[in-house]
Structures are given as C-alpha cells and as structure tokens.
C-alpha cells in the first residue's frame, strides 16, 4: 500500500493548522521606555514613574476558580481584602491551560490556541514580559513553583526552585516544596518581587474535580499561606503589595482547557491599598502591575490601565495613561487622531493645571486605548488564508481518488490522472492570478467533471504544474519552500497510482444490503451535523443513538432472516449489549450540558467506596483475561500465563502511588510479551489499554471486544469496517472524552517516568486518548480472509472525509462567537486523530516491510 496519499494528507492537515491557528509575533527590539516629554513639555521620568511599593509578592494558585475565594474556604484572605484591598473578576481567554495563561499574565498579549501543544512540550522561551522589565530595572525576582516559568524565563530569577506540574496525583509535596522556600525568603530582605505558583489545587481538580472533599482543605492551606506572608511583611513595616490570582479556573467535572464560565473566570485580589472591585481581561494585568511597580510596560502587551486599581494622583495617572496608549499606538495607527487630541489636552493641563482638560485627556486616552486594544485582539486571530485554502484543496482532490480506489473503479486511471493534474494546475493558477471566488468556481467545475466521469477526456495531460507556477508557490512566504517543491511529486505519485481492478467489491448486492446502506448513510451524515455547535458539544449523543439503533437494526434483520428458535441466542447476546451499554454510558458524564452531572465513576472514587472500586477493578481485569482467552483459543499456555501476570501487575500499579519502577516493569513486560511470544497486536494493545485507562474505565475494554465478536459475525466486510469505526467513536466518548480539550487527561502520560519527558508524555497521552479507535482497528483484522489494504483505505477515507467537513465548517464559522471555544477545539482534536491514524498506517507498512526484508535476507 502506497503511503504517498496518506503522507500528503497528513502534510495538508498540518498546513491547515498552521494557516488557521495564528502564531504570536514578538518585536525583536522593543522600544518600551517611559516617555520623557509630552509634545513640547519635558517631564521628570524618575518623579512621575516610580514604584508605589518596596516589595511585592505575587501568588498564583493554579486552577483557582472565582467561587473558591469565599468566607468559608478562605476566611483570612477575604478579611484582608475587605480591610485594605479589592476583589476583582478576571476574564481568561481560551485555551485555559497553564503555559498560555502565564504568557498572558506576564506579557499581556493574547496567547494562541497552538500554545496547547507548547503547554505539553514547555520548551518556548518568552522574549518580552514584565519579568524582563523587572530584570532590566535591576529588581531581584525570586520564584518558587511550577517549572513552566523557569522554561519561559531562564536566568531571569535571582533565586528559584521549580516543581513539575504534570504529576497530578501529587497534592501535598508539590505545594510543601514551595512553602518551604517561602519561609526562608520571608527571613531574607534582598529580594524585590517574589512569585509563587502553587499546583496542588489544580492536581486535585484533575483527579477528583472541584467538589472533592480535598478542595476545602487545600483552600484553607492556601488561605493560611496568604495570611502568613501578609503578616510577615506587615510586621517588618514594609510598604508591600500582595496579589493573589489564578492562571485559569476549573470546570465542574474537573480539569481545564475549555471555555466554560468556571474555567474562564478567576479572582484577582489586591491586598495593600484601597481599590474598587471591577472586572477586566487577564491581558490587562501586566500593564497595571508594571505601573504599580514602576517597571517598563512590556512592548508586546495589548492590555489597558484600570484606573480603579491604581492609587495615583491625577498627574501621575495621566502620565501612565499616556505611556500605555503610546505603546499601543505603535502597534496600530487606529485612533491616532484621538491620541493627538488627548496629548494636546494633557499638555494644556500640565501648563495650566486645568482639571477639565485633564478629565478630557483621560477620556480620550481611555477611548483610544480601548479602540486599539480591541483592534489588536482581532488582529491577533488573523489567519493565513493561502495556507488554509491550499491545504483544503489538496485534501478535496485526494478524497475522490481514495473513494474510487475503494469502490473498485477500473477504467478511470488516465482520466483521473488528467483531471487531477488539470485541477491542481488551474487551482494554483487561479489562486495566484484571481480571487478566491474564481478558485471555488474552478473546484466546482472540476468536481462535476470528476463525478460525471467525463468520457471525452481521454488524453493524458501531465506536468501541467509548470515551473513558472511552482516559482510562484515558492515565492509565497506563507508556504514553506520545502513543502511546495515536494507537492507536485507527491500529487503526481498519488494521482497516477494505478487503480486497477478492485481487490474486493464492497457494494455487491447481498442479503445485508440494507445494513450496508444504513451504516454508510449514518456515518456520512454524522460529520454534517457539525454545522451546529450544539451537535459538536453533545456529539456523544449521536454515537450513543447510532449504536443503539444499529444493534436494534441487527436484531430485526436476524429475526427476518431466521426463525426465532435459531436466532434466539444471537438476539439475547445483542440485547445484552444494549443493556450493558445502558450501564456503561453512565460511567462517565460527558458533553457540555451533562458533563458535570454525578456518575458511577464519581461514586466509585469516594473514599468510603474504595473497596467496591477495587472489587470492580478485579472483575474488569477478569473479564479482560477471559476476552483474551477467547481471542487466542490456539495460543500456548505460556501466553495466557503471561497475560495473567501482566494484568496482575497492572492491578498492583493502579493501587499504588505512581510506582515508577513497577510502571517500567509493566511496559517492559508488554514489550517482551509482544517480541518473544509473538503475541498479536490485538492482545498487546489490550494490555496497553488496561495500563492506560483509569481503573473504572477498564470495563470498556471487554465490552469493546465482546461487541466486536457478537456483532461482526453478522456483517460483511464494509459493514464490519463502519461498525468498528462507530464502536471506536462510541467508546471514545464513553471513556469520558468530549470535544473540549479539558477532557484530555495529561496525568496518564507519566507511567514509568520519574521526570518530565516530552516525547514519552505526549505519546502516552495520545495513546490514552485514542485507545478505543485503535483497539477497534486491530479487532477488524481478527478475520484472516480480509483485504487489509482496502480496510485501511476505507478507514483513512472516512477519517479524511470527517476532517474535511470539520475544516470547512470551522472555516465558515471562523467569525462565530464560539469559534475558539467549540469549533477550534474540534478541529484540533480531529486533526490529531487524522495524524494518529496515519501513524498507525505508517507503523503497519513499516512492520510489513521489515518483516519482508528479514524473511528475504535472514
């Protein structure tokens, strides 16, 4: 099976993501010095722009929801705020994960959605922020907490100690290490700014959710730390400022990453001067913090001053407002007239002390800064349309070719080759010579040509991608040269691949023709529902309904074809699947509407039910072992013994506190089991699934196997492929996933790891996320008489079709209110799913090639 088409699609997926998700640009040489004059009046910068405080402590409590700060859970902090401070509500933009939120807290710009990937890799170094300004001003900054800060700001802290944010089952030690250093720093007097980032609350949220009994205890611990730091500073008579905030919130069902109210709203507490409570975006924090501490405002900020937070007189506030608006104006010419008028009134006030002129200047400055800030936020989400359309058209040109290959069209290779080359040539030419409307017109005409199988086009046209057009592609900055030079080779290789005669006629008339139509029709319709944001948020409901309907449809078919006595056993087994799934769908509440509802997993995770949880886990592993025996009836005894031992080790691991050594032993055992005993990929992946899944979700593994065994025997090959695709999607959501990135469990990425390793963590997180789609794929190949090439092409074609629909829907709704909270996460999830399927296909092909090579030469 040629990988050209699959590789080209994968490249197109990345190209679409590159074009759709903007990447922040940071000025290389930021000019962010406070102004020394306004029009013709010189100013004393040292007098006008000085720090209001000698020392500052900033406490970031990871996943601190807005409702967590209350008189019951944090009474001491609440009292301090009432006495000398204010409680503000901060709006956090998606994505609500740590890395982009730290960037927003320190740099004041809008982090991009692609920062989700960087949050797992955590390798990016921030170039401009309030931390840089503090260092440039000679301030000594100490830091303790999440080591993401150390990766963003290397060599910027006077003293520091990092703690990893990914070992989410660590609720106490991760915070104790921070507090231990705090006690030492409170005795020191050589620092100016102390930043603390506590992770324990976030870890509890990931594992147990915001309503766990552990949350109030953790909030009380944070409350005592805030009070302790405040009292220590106060006893030393320091003019100090204490700030408490969260980087993001926590959704009701636990975790974060989405756009629910509880994830996107966090408290911002100021303790140290009287101020008025208000609401503002998180991007406003750095600019206000900078003027409070007398630091240069980060050049990349798009934030605005909040007057109610600042304890400055009219003259100083006007100066700071001028400074903030001046920096914003350097990024956009919008509002230039208002800035000039404000500067004129400001100058008049400095000459005459006329407060009316000062108030007018303030109004004009604030209006100008608001207009520019909103414009910059909009500009930060601009996309590269050339990359988007180019990638989409490549995928659209490959999809019909794959469909023709699957259905066994036998006399179209030359015409398809011809149409494909003309299509790509005219597409690229029209794109570079005319507008996008011409491009769409060309696509429609050539699609009609392809569908009608234009008989008169019998000449072979090749090489129409002339050098001149290729040069135009290369000259475009938005399309990398290495990609454009390889496009023609890959397109020609994929389009001119000989389709030949079909390996298997999928759509022959059989007794199960109605089942074929039913499965294919419902599978094709499903992605079209994404035109509605609600169907994306509640996609699991479609798969649940589709699955129940499919089982019911199978029962009716069996009753029609055979007498009741002969079909009674099969009907009972299918009814058992329906009844069992009614129980399993309540194991994890998912979706936007029902995700926070109590479910069976919540009950099992309660401390008083731990024995039921363990008994249920044992039952699950026994069912997995029995399913493996059924799948390997001809296996030797040693294989079954090895399976039993590995499952026993998994039970011990899941009931221990992240035993790293045991985790490595299990991984090594699974590898040896696969290599030495020549275990099938199916059994190997079942063992990996049991290791990856949370204990209460392991029950889905035997259910998946038994569903495959019971249903597939009534289905033909194409029906079998579409049914397993349905089953994989069904169990993806039954596992607790949704189309919110908050449902991705990053804690599972640390099995067998002592410290953070990006490659292994990302690999394990991906395996856990797509464990059931992969399991369903390997179950398809249980039958020996099956055309693997056609099956993989069918799976990839349906995946490509789904991905294309998601791309088009996301493109249509790119200005929709829910673009970053609903459509963009869906695009990201589907893109990763498509790439993951390519990895599966690449692995299968590579394994086959190596096996063939070894048999030939060894």
From TrEMBL:
GO terms for molecular function: CP2 mannose-ethanolamine phosphotransferase activity. Pathway: Glycolipid biosynthesis; glycosylphosphatidylinositol-anchor biosynthesis. CDD domains: GPI_EPT_2. SUPFAM superfamilies: Alkaline phosphatase-like. It is found in: Endoplasmic reticulum membrane. Keywords: Endoplasmic reticulum, Glycoprotein, GPI-anchor biosynthesis, Membrane, Transferase, Transmembrane, Transmembrane helix. Residues 506-654, 705-827 form the GPI ethanolamine phosphate transferase 2 C-terminal domain. It is a multi-pass membrane protein. The chain crosses the membrane at residues 6-23, 387-406, 426-452, 515-536, 542-559, 610-630, 635-653, 665-688, 721-738, 758-780, 800-823, 835-853. GO terms for cellular component: endoplasmic reticulum membrane. Its main location: endoplasmic reticulum. It comes from the Eukaryota. Belongs to the PIGG/PIGN/PIGO family. PIGG subfamily. This is GPI ethanolamine phosphate transferase 2 C-terminal domain-containing protein. It comes from Phaedon cochleariae.
